[in-house]
Amino acid sequence: MNSDETATELAKLRAELAALKDAQQAAPAATAPDASASAARDEVSAETNEAIGEEEDEVKSQLHELAELLENEIRDLPTITCLAVFSVGILMGRLLR
Description:
2 helices, mainly alpha
């Protein structure tokens, strides 16, 4: 590169730098509306998290009820019958492999 090309390139870089500084100074003014948008997103996110938390609690309570129901059903069945059915299930599983 000769000195003319270097000088031209330097002038281009200085112009780009000036444009970037102007854009950076204009950016804080433009971010004020974005602050309200991000606050709205945070609010929606909080509402979504609350809804998810409520659904998780509902699912946990349903699983707890199901576990209690199964526990009661198993208590009512004779132990020998349960073991026999379980053993038949294991044998069927191995034979179907």
